[in-house]
Amino acid sequence: MVNPIIAAILSFIIPGLGQIIAGETKKGL
């Protein structure tokens, strides 16, 4: 489980990585 805040920060630094994490987080929910 990844915190949305961390995903947002990573997405800000690395857009591609953020999208992957966000996608995995949505699947987890």
Question: Can you characterise this structure?
Answer:
This is Region of a membrane-bound protein predicted to be embedded in the membrane. It comes from Methanobacterium congolense. With 29 residues, this protein is an all-alpha fold. The chain is built from two helices and no strands. It has helices at residues 4-13, 15-28. The N and C termini lie close together (9 Å).
The portion of residues forming beta strands comes to under 5%
Q: What do the pLDDT scores average to?
A: 68
What helical percentage do the residues reach? over 70%
Helix and strand composition category:
mainly alpha
Termini separation? 9 Å
Helix segment tally: 2
Low-confidence stretches: none
The backbone outline, from C-alpha atoms, is flat
Count of extended strands: 0
- Rounded radius of gyration (Å): 8 Å
Query: What's the order of the H and E elements?
Result: HH
Major sheet summary line: none
Organism: Methanobacterium congolense
Protein name: Region of a membrane-bound protein predicted to be embedded in the membrane
List keywords for this structure.
83% helix, flat, 0% strand, Region of a membrane-bound protein predicted to be embedded in the membrane, single chain, mainly alpha, 29 residues
What is the secondary structure topology, with strand pairs?
Blueprint: H1 4-13, H2 15-28
How would you summarize this macromolecular structure in one to three sentences?
It comes from Methanobacterium congolense. With 29 residues, this protein is an all-alpha fold.
